[in-house]
Amino acid sequence: MTEPWKLHDKTFVKYMSERKIQAGVKKLAARLNLEYQGKKPLFVVVLNGSFIFASDLLKRISIDCEIAFVKVSSYKGVNSTGKIEEVIGLDIPVEGRHVVLVEDIVDSGLTIVKLIDKIKALKAFDVKVAACLLKPEAYKMDYPIDYVCFRIPNDFVVGYGLDYDGLGRNSADIYKISE
Ligand code: IMP
């Protein structure tokens, strides 16, 4: 993308290169391969934003695993609305399973924690989160986010699957909003 990247009314500058992202994803996959060896985890990919991260991460998972996809919606524009709408599409039984939720970004944590609660209620053996990005300053929940590629400041970012009102998902690099 040519910089600055203009999306709707805002401009974005490059923040994290494809190379750096891929190194982080590779490291996380290696950890998951070790820690889930023999557990046949169920990776639940939280759409839409996670599609690129999930693809890169799961290509590097070499142990037996299953993959499912769910969709929730909670974000409009640059501020979290704090509401989780419906969870659509969880069509694999989770009872007794080691579930790993695959998320693009954890911000306030409202979305992921509500999803965790729903999956726990379905009697999963355990539920953990693998997130590409975590904003520690924004995260308000007690539930530990076990697997994170990168901790980032509280800036709005796009690219690598993340969007600003529909635009910006199609970049291998991550951009952040410029003041
Ligand atoms: P949370 O419920 O506040 O943790 O927000 C989670 C969801 O909001 C993520 O799955 C993203 O879809 C979206 N989101 C949070 N922060 C950003 C950002 O910086 N850029 C784009 N989307 C974001």
Explained architecture:
The chain has a single domain, classed as Rossmann fold. Strands 4-3-7-8-9 form a five-stranded parallel sheet. A four-stranded antiparallel sheet has the order 1-2-11-10. A two-stranded antiparallel ribbon has the order 5-6. It is built from three helices and eleven strands. Helices cover about 20% and strands about 30% of the residues. The longest helix has 18 residues, at about 20-35. About 35% of the residues are buried. Helix 3 (about 110-120) links the parallel strand 7 and strand 8 (about 125-135). The two termini are about 20 Å apart. The mean pLDDT is about 95. It has helices at about 20-35, 50-60, 110-120; strands at about 5, 10-15, 40-45, 65-70, 75, 80, 100-105, 125-135, 145-150, 155-160, 175. Helix 1 (about 20-35) crosses helix 2 (about 50-60). The chain has about 180 residues and is of the alpha/beta class. It binds inosinic acid.
Strand content: 25-35%
Give the termini separation: 19 Å
Name the helicity range: 10-25%
Order of helices and strands: EEHEHEEEEHEEEE
Strands, helices and their partners?
Blueprint: E1 5-7, E2 10-16, H1 18-35, E3 42-47, H2 51-59, E4 66-71, E5 75-76, E6 79-80, E7 98-106, H3 110-121, E8 126-134, E9 147-151, E10 157-158, E11 174-177
Parallel strand pairs: 3-4, 3-7, 7-8, 8-9
Antiparallel strand pairs: 1-2, 2-11, 5-6, 10-11
Helix pairs in contact: 1-2
This protein binds inosinic acid.
Brief descriptors of the model:
22% helix, four-stranded antiparallel β-sheet, alpha/beta, five-stranded parallel β-sheet, 11 strands, Rossmann fold, 179 residues, 3 helices
